[in-house]
Write a structure and sequence with these properties.
Layout: E1 3-8, H1 11-17, E2 24-27, H2 40-49, E3 55-58, H3 68-79, E4 84-88, H4 95-105, E5 111-117, H5 124-131, E6 137-141, H6 150-153, H7 156-168, E7 172-175, H8 184-188, E8 194-197, H9 212-233
Parallel strand pairs: 1-2, 1-8, 2-3, 3-4, 4-5, 5-6, 6-7, 7-8
Helix pairs in contact: 5-7
Length: 234
């Protein structure tokens, strides 16, 4: 069963999302790069509104996470019982800084998710290096949201290798980055653990506001494809 992740930006969207069965609700500042942090107050409001849902939060766009501000956010999100924190892997020259950060996070309940970026020239060697880090899971996203999607940028072999490398060492993995409704079935064929959406939840050609009809469509598509994949497997 491939899960769905929906990214929201504020309490208004959280109230709307309460009506839809996305598996993971991701909280991010969509106006601040790929992994903008919405702030502690907004996290509190949303987590109170969606207290029975699985939540993830993007920690910011720092070049590496071994900084006081990122660790303060980690501790706050952990104390707020957020399920996942998403950390950007923007520069592989700082993998040692990720290792130090992950040692600090080891005894906390919150799960860590390392985010690679398809438009940062990743390859199989980079994926293998990042898989050695102690992230609980990894996902691929895009830095730029107005151009090509992850599926446009990366070839099938590399995406398959990413999923395979993660599953081989018992890490969960996800695909995101300008995913569209008409490519959901294509994305799901790679059998990552989840698929992430933002733009596809909104009105066409906009990432500003989530629309009910788009949420309904995506939930329906994913449910139907999961059923189809299950039937083919048995």
């Amino acid at each position: 069963m491939i899960k769905s992740l929906a990214s929201i930006k504020n309490i208004k969207e959280a109230s709307l999302m309460a009506d839809y069965d996305f598996d993971i609700i991701d909280i991010k500042n969509i106006d601040d790069g790929p992994l903008g942090y919405v702030g502690n107050k907004e996290v509190e409001l949303i987590s109170n509104e969606l207290d029975n849902r699985i939540l993830s939060v993007t920690a910011g766009n720092s070049d590496h996470p071994n900084k006081d501000i990122i660790y303060e956010r980690l501790e706050f999100l952990n104390s707020s019982k957020i399920d996942y924190i998403k950390i950007g892997i923007f520069d592989i020259n700082y993998l040692d800084m990720h290792s130090i950060f992950l040692k600090k996070a080891f005894n906390l309940n919150i799960k860590t998710v390392g985010v690679l970026f398809a438009d940062n020239n990743i390859d199989i060697n980079i994926i293998k290096k990042i898989c050695k880090l102690d992230y609980d899971g990894l996902m691929i996203d895009t830095v730029k949201k107005s151009s090509k999607s992850t599926l446009d940028i990366l070839d099938d072999n590399l995406i398959n290798s990413f999923v395979s490398e993660c599953h081989k060492i018992k890490k969960f993995c996800g695909l995101s980055g300008s995913m569209q409704q008409n490519t959901i079935e294509y994305a799901m064929k790679f059998k990552s653990d989840f698929i992430g959406f933002r733009g596809a939840l909104c009105s066409p050609n906009s990432r500003d506001n989530i629309e009910s009809i788009q949420c309904q469509n995506i939930i329906k598509i994913i449910k139907n494809i999961n059923q189809k994949m299950y039937q083919e497997a048995v």
